[in-house]
Design a protein that fits this description.
Layout lengths: L2 H41 L7 H46 L9 H20 L2 H22 L1 H23 L2 H27 L3 H56 L5 H23 L1 H18 L18 E4 L6 E8 L9 E8 L5 E4 L6 H9 L6 E6 L3 E4 L8 H14 L1 H14 L12 H14 L4 E5 L7 H17 L3 E5 L6 H4 L3 E4 L1
Parallel strand pairs: 1-5, 4-8, 4-9, 6-7, 7-8
Antiparallel strand pairs: 2-3, 2-5
Helix pairs in contact: 1-2, 1-4, 1-8, 2-3, 3-6, 3-9, 4-5, 4-8, 5-7, 6-7, 6-9, 7-8, 12-13, 12-14, 13-14
Length: 526
């Protein structure tokens, strides 16, 4: 089920729950109108109903109306926040399962940022649907009443005034492209700001820092100009709607005077008509004023539909032909990695990283991968880890692998502590091996330390790999940030622990190892 279909189904369910309570609220409004008519009859001496009884009845009606309005609000807000939560869950699930090639281009990154922006916009503007339902319901309830009180005046309202208001609403609909453009501009700015934060933390070049800052300032100015322009248009249209309301009131009063002068309406009829219009005017007016919200919600839905389609169809290659899908199977635990005719190219690149790659590695010994920069060593590990997808290949490899990337990002360390606690409770032999490795690598203080260095992050990542349930570990230059004197002892401690736990390791490294350590590996050159 697509997001749009699910939202329509959810909206129907929400409206079905909202409608009975809204109808009761409208019925309470009709009761208030009946009370106004009764009051006119009381002061005109046409009925013997005591004023106190009338007052008590009106208080009861007001309380009932308040109760039903509270019910409407509860239903609409619960629906809105429930749907918003589901939409954000959809965004996170879709983000987790996006094909890696989406992130190969700035366009893909922008689409992801725009989609997140759209989830926020949808939450802020989704209540407009229920306001529209309430406005329509008020018209359905009170339109017959208005015609009964004065059909000429009602025709005047709906033939002259309503079409002009509808024209303003169509103009509000045209703000849609501007809303979508603003969402994408805000997402671009957030992406640029994230990049700037990383660079400001690690890049000291004054010219580059100034250039990035100037670029962000230009983006801020563009957001200011386009946002102000869209906001001014909204404000102008809202003010036009207010002006139309004032002018409509003037024309209605003049038309009423004409009707009263010709005997088609008396003072009591005018009071009743004004009361009925007042009771149905507020929700209708609110509906007209939130048309920009409706437009924003629909724009957000359009952006989310685009996000939903990302990576659904295999992207064509540079020459226009779609790559064949890779045939990938999970090999048995005792087998290694087999790749036949492996082909891979990054999105937008001019040439393949791999064209017809053939590999057969067994799990008998850990594998050490060497080769010059740029030949695809890291890319190959990413393909094995599932962080990239082959354009075409026949692959038999373990799916459950633990990958330690060269550009290392660590999840929150409380997750590692939970993992270690689970090992301690269920696997005492494995825990003993972990404790020995932790002591050798000096890891105990690092589990609570804030602001880890690159070498410290690498040590924590190795512990994480050992503590995990994965039986295959991929290491991409894991010791690049570790001091030279500590690299080989740390590698030996890791290999010893991995062997005891039955873990197979594939490591990419440029480090010069001693002959004693080098012979542990099966060396492969790319």
């Amino acid at each position: 089920m697509t997001l749009k279909i699910w939202l329509k189904k959810s909206l129907k369910g929400g409206v079905a729950r909202f409608l009975p309570v809204a109808l009761l609220a409208s019925a309470a409004d009709a009761g208030v109108l009946w009370g106004v008519r009764s009051f006119i009859e009381i002061i005109g001496g046409k009925t013997d109903v005591p004023l106190l009884a009338w007052l008590a009845g009106m208080i009861v009606l007001a309380l009932l109306r308040l109760f039903f309005l509270f019910g409407k609000s509860k239903i609409s807000e619960n629906w809105l926040y429930g749907v918003s939560s589901r939409v954000q869950a959809f965004f996170l699930h879709r983000l987790r399962n996006l094909p890696p090639n989406v992130f190969h281009s700035p366009k893909g990154e922008r689409e992801v940022e725009s989609a997140y922006e759209a989830t926020v916009v949808l939450q802020n503007n989704g209540g407009v649907f229920f306001q529209a339902v309430q406005a329509i319901l008020q018209l359905v309830v009170f339109l017959p009443v208005l015609f009964y009180i004065s059909w000429p005046l009602t025709l005047f309202l709906f033939v002259v005034i309503v079409p002009f208001v509808a024209l303003l609403q169509r103009k509000l609909h045209r703000l849609g492209p501007a809303e979508e453009s603003l969402m994408r501009l805000r997402s671009d700015f957030r992406g640029d700001l994230t990049l700037a934060r990383r660079l400001f933390r690690q890049w000291s070049g004054r010219d580059e820092r100034s250039g990035i800052s100037d670029g962000l300032l230009k983006s801020v100015r563009r957001l200011r100009d386009e946002g102000a322009s869209a906001a001014i248009k909204k404000s102008q249209l809202s003010l036009w709607a207010e002006t139309v309301s004032v002018v409509a009131m003037v024309f209605v009063l003049a038309f009423c005077a004409l009707l009263m002068g010709r005997g088609y309406m008396d003072a009591s009829g005018l009071v009743l008509f004004a009361s009925a219009v007042l009771l149905c005017y507020k929700p209708v007016k609110e509906c007209a004023r939130v048309m920009p919200q409706f437009r924003a919600a629909m724009s957000a839905l359009n952006v989310l539909e685009t996000f939903e389609s990302l990576g659904v169809v295999d992207a064509p290659s540079v020459d226009g032909a779609s790559h064949a899908r890779a045939s990938i199977s999970e090999g048995p635990a005792g087998e290694g990695v087999v790749v036949r005719d492996g082909r891979f190219r990054y999105e937008g690149a001019d040439q393949d990283v791999f064209g017809g790659l053939d590999i057969r590695w067994s799990r008998e010994r850990p594998v050490l991968v060497r080769g010059r920069n740029g030949v695809g060593k890291s890319t190959f590990l990413r393909l094995l880890a599932g962080l990239e997808r082959w354009n075409s290949a026949e692959v038999s490899a373990p799916r459950d692998v633990f990958f330690v990337a060269q550009d290392l990002e660590l999840p929150p360390r409380w997750m590692l502590l939970q993992l270690i606690d689970r090992v301690k409770a269920n696997e005492p032999e494995k825990m003993a091996t972990l404790e020995k490795f932790m002591m050798t690598a000096g890891l105990a203080p690092l589990l609570e330390k804030q602001g880890l260095s690159g070498g410290e992050r690498a040590r924590v990542a190795l512990l994480w790999a050992l503590a995990s349930e994965a039986l295959t570990v991929l290491l991409d230059e894991p010791f690049a940030s570790v001091s030279l004197g500590d690299r080989e002892p740390l590698l030996v401690a890791y290999l010893d622990a991995a062997k005891k736990m039955g873990k197979w390791t594939i490591i990419v490294s440029h480090d010069v190892l001693s002959a004693e350590v080098e012979c542990i590996f099966k060396t492969e050159c790319f």
